[in-house]
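Priority: medium. Attachment 1 of 2:
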């Protein structure tokens, strides 16, 4: 029963349509991993069952060969006893001749028994041989399927990684859209523009301060001239312009 069950599992797995199973699976990778485990375990069970079946078959073949060989040996013994009986009967020794004829009969009975044993085992050997061949074919089919599963798994993983990489690139390109004012690049550009405007404002403010300083210098010059003329008046000089 155990061998029949394993043989049934082998047949089911070999006939399984991988692509159909993957189409029905919610997670194809998990399905493939599970199938690889199932096939690997079933192959190990099948190899054990086939080894046991082959071992039993070889024992049956050995027993059959021994029966055939024993039948031939008993046939030879029967022939030898019969010839000895004929020789004794030819010289008038009937009593001993009858004994050897009886021995020949016993040998013939044993020969028939061994032949029957060999005849009985023969159909079982034929059946077991057929089972072993089917198991071997099924096992080879499972090994081919297992290779297909592993290749399919590698292909699926490669495709998944490629798709993931493509999605990452797409997302990265989308996030660096310079026309998008809400993007990081747009915000950074706006910040740079504000900093540039601030620098320009500081430069303009610095220039205005410098002009004011020069204007104050001119005012100081005018005050100095007024002071000089006032001093001249006090000393009795004219209040006109001081000759330079």
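Attachment 2 of 2:
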């Amino acid at each position: 029963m155990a061998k029949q069950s394993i043989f049934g599992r082998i047949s089911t797995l070999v006939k399984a349509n991988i692509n159909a199973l993957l189409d029905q699976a919610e997670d194809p990778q998990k399905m493939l991993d599970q199938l690889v485990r199932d096939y690997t375990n079933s192959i190990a069970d099948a190899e054990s069952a086939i080894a046991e079946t082959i071992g039993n078959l070889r024992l049956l073949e050995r027993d059959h060969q021994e029966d055939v060989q024993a039948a031939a040996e008993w046939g030879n013994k029967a022939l030898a006893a019969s010839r000895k009986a004929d020789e004794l009967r030819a010289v008038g020794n009937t009593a001993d001749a009858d004994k050897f004829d009886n021995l020949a009969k016993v040998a013939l009975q044993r020969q028939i028994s061994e032949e029957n044993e060999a005849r009985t085992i023969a159909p079982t050997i034929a059946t077991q041989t057929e089972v072993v061949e089917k198991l071997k074919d099924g096992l080879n089919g499972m090994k081919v399927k297992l290779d297909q599963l592993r290749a399919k798994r590698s292909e699926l993983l490669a495709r998944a990684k490629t798709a993931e990489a493509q999605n990452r690139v797409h997302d990265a390109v989308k996030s660096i859209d310079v026309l998008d004012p809400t993007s990081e690049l747009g915000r950074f550009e706006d910040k740079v523009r504000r900093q540039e405007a601030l620098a320009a404002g500081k430069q303009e403010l610095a220039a205005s301060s410098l002009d004011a300083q020069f204007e104050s210098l001119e005012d100081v010059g005018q005050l100095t001239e007024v002071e000089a003329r006032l001093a001249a008046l006090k000393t009795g000089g004219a209040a006109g312009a001081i000759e330079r």
